[in-house]
Amino acid sequence: MNEDQFEAAQLAELTERARKLFSGPVTFLKSAPELKFLPDPIVNEVAFAGRSNVGKSSLLNALVGRKAIARTSVTPGRTQELNFFDVGEPLKFRLVDMPGYGFAKAPPKVVETWRRLVRDFLRGRVELKRTLVLIDSRHGVKTVDLEMMKMLDEAAVGYRIVLTKADKIKASELEAVHAATLVEARKHPAAFPVVHITSSEKGLGIEELRAAVLGDAEL
Ligand SMILES: Nc1nc2c(ncn2[C@@H]2O[C@H](COP(=O)(O)OP(=O)(O)O)[C@@H](O)[C@H]2O)c(=O)[nH]1
Ligand SMILES: [Mg+2]
Predict the structure, then answer these.
(1) Distance CA 215, CA 97 (A)
(2) What is the Å distance from ligand 2's center to 128 Cα?
(3) In angstroms, rounded to a whole number, what is the distance separating the alpha carbons of residues 134 and 203?
(4) Which residue has its alpha carbon closest to ligand 1 atom 12?
(5) Whose CA is nearest to atom 9 of ligand 1?
(6) Does the beta carbon of 102 lie inside 6 Å of ligand 1?
(7) Rounded to the nearest 5 degrees, what angle is found at the Cα of 93, between the Cα atoms of 122 and 212?
(8) 72 CB near ligand 1 (under 6 Å)
(9) Per-residue pLDDT for the chain (219 aa), expressed as one digit of tens each?
(10) Which parts of the sequence belong to the EngB-type G domain (predicted)?
(11) Which CATH architecture has domain 3-217?
């Protein structure tokens, strides 16, 4: 076996383990509206961040192949907590659904509470191995996303940028937003030089992302 074949075999093995793990027991553990409510840090964690309505709940549901592990909603900006999900039995790692940001009409106080909760979590959580920053394919990276990325850069938490709702735009537009997002990613010290393309609706990129998340959780 040469080096390429070895890498391909490893990826296939990771992908298969990820498929099994994500289709097995995944259960909601708890919501933490403040840091004092965080669960005991007993396993590695991978978090999901993004603007409200970016498709975060839908992506979590697609990853675990279930309709409603995470609540999808058409009312943006409702949740202001960190939501923890246990993956595997026995427990293997945790997924953390972070509160959405960038919703219109949020009072400054709410934004400040969000910022403090997220910043303190990112800075203090040793078990947090990686964050996925979701970006709507139709909109690309916005100012509020840059703020999130800056917080991650400053906390030195590595992150993957994930384009969502890829089914909603034309292939040529997708290509352009992908390229532009890659350029942005390269400017950020903690960002992976890879941009994932996904559609929770069509299942695009989900298998690859499952493997990536498991790989991150095993860091
Ligand atoms: N077409 C399409 N719609 C999506 C996709 N993912 C999410 N949505 C829709 O976008 C809206 C917001 O999704 P949700 O998962 O609740 O976003 P969240 O606020 O980030 O958790 C909902 O109406 C979803 O049905 C996708 O991959 N394709
Ligand atoms: Mg949601």
Answers:
(1) 18
(2) 20
(3) 16
(4) 53
(5) 55
(6) no
(7) 80
(8) yes
(9) 899 999 999 999 999 999 999 999 999 999 999 999 999 999 999 999 999 999 999 999 999 998 777 666 545 445 689 999 999 999 999 999 999 998 777 888 888 989 999 999 999 999 999 999 999 999 999 999 999 999 999 999 999 999 999 999 999 999 999 999 999 999 999 999 999 999 999 999 999 999 999 999 998
(10) 42-219
(11) 3-Layer(aba) Sandwich (3.40)
